Each structure stands twice: as C-alpha cells, then as structure tokens.
C-alpha cells in the first residue's frame, strides 16, 4: 500500500481551507492534509514544535497563502528557504493576489509555482485538482 501524500496547507481563510479539504477528500490519491492558519503555526508544525505535528513527518508539498496574520506568506517562504532542513520542500503559492510584485518576489525567494485563487467555487476546486494532478502524478518528488 502506498504511503499517503502529506500536504501542509497554510491558509487563514476557513472557507478556502474547507474547500481545499473537500477537494482532496474526493481525490483518487490518499492525501493527508494538515492546516496551519499562519506562518508562526506552520513553522512550529514543520519544526515538530506544534501540538499537531508528528515528529519527523514533513510534508511532501506546502500550499501557501500570502496574506496571513502574525507571519505572512512572504516571510514564511523566506524562512523556509533559509532553513537547511526545510528548503527542499516544494512550495506552491496559492493566493488571491494577482500583484506582479508578489509573483516576482515569491519566485525570487524560491517558490516552486504561483497560482492565483479564483473567486468562483467550481474554478477553485479545479485549480486544487490541477495542483494535485501535477504535483502528485506528473512531478517526481524526493522520497522521504
């Protein structure tokens, strides 16, 4: 039996988080989704200091919103890519921002791709499914 694919969603909007959860639940793949509501919680999770963290269980992929409380997505991305133990993790920016400066800045900080969230419910689900299809069936990720 194949191990579940581990995804960390860093998202403070409960509606977007719920929609992402629902989309992954109907997936043909086995996906374990963890959610952090801001960059501080995400770093605690990734560094095994969160009450939700399972020691040594880093995600295969991080879905990162940019507009977060406490520690925003730009700052978290910079922290991830500066950390020898975390920089290898692929990071997909999944945000409502269409600002060119956000796109340029996140790629400069090492984001693996940038996806703008559509406002339409069905379109959002299609985007999440496309991310899943690409990252878990096309791309080859390093083994744990």
From TrEMBL:
Signal peptide: none annotated. The modification 4-aspartylphosphate is found at residue 65. Keywords: Phosphoprotein. Residues 6-132 form the Response regulatory domain. Pfam families: Response_reg. GO terms for biological process: phosphorelay signal transduction system. SMART domains: REC (SM00448). SUPFAM superfamilies: CheY-like. InterPro entries: CheY-like_superfamily, Sig_transdc_resp-reg_receiver, TCS_response_regulator. Transmembrane segments: none annotated. This is Response regulator.
């Amino acid at each position: 039996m194949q191990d579940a694919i581990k995804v960390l969603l860093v998202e403070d909007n409960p509606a977007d988080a719920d929609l992402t959860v629902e989309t992954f639940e109907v997936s043909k793949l086995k996906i374990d989704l963890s959610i952090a509501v801001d960059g501080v919680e995400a770093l605690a999770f990734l560094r095994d200091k969160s009450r939700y963290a399972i020691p040594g269980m880093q995600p295969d992929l991080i879905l990162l919103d940019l507009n977060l409380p406490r520690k925003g997505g730009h700052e978290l991305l910079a922290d991830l890519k500066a950390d020898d133990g975390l920089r290898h993790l692929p990071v997909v920016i999944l945000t409502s921002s269409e600002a060119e400066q956000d796109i340029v800045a996140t790629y400069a900080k090492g984001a693996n791709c940038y996806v703008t969230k559509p406002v339409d419910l069905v379109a959002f689900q299609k985007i999440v499914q496309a991310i899943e299809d690409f990252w878990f069936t096309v791309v080859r990720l390093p083994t744990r």
